[in-house]
Amino acid sequence: VPTVALVPKSLPLARQRLITLGDIAAVPFVATSKSTVLRVMLDQLCAREQVSLRLVAEAPNVLTAGRLAETGVGVAIVDRLTARHVDTTAVA
Q: Which helix (H) or strand (E) holds 56?
């Protein structure tokens, strides 16, 4: 499914329209649990691209990861359906 990065508006990265995996690697990152399909795919992508993310929290699911992004903990990658349920005044 299509995914989006939820970037806390407190980060300069929030002003960019398009961000890369390398951009995300430079800021705190909230990952989903290693048991989620999204996390498995993200870990594979990071390995292939030789990118290490600055993991600051691990959420059990994408909704919790989105909520952590809302509070400013770090960037989270979530599916578009989940992104509809986050506070867009807090994240870009």
A: strand 54-59
* Residues β-bridged to residue 31: 58
Q: Is the pLDDT confidence value at 61 over 90?
A: yes
Q: Which amino acid is at 27?
A: V
Residue 26: closest CA among 40, 11, 36: 11
* Residue 2 to residue 12: CA distance in whole angstroms: 24
Residues in the chain: 92
25-56 pLDDT, tens digit per residue, is 999 999 999 999 999 999 999 999 999 999 99
- CB-CB contact of 21 with 45 (8 Å): yes
* CA gap 89, 70 in Å, rounded: 9
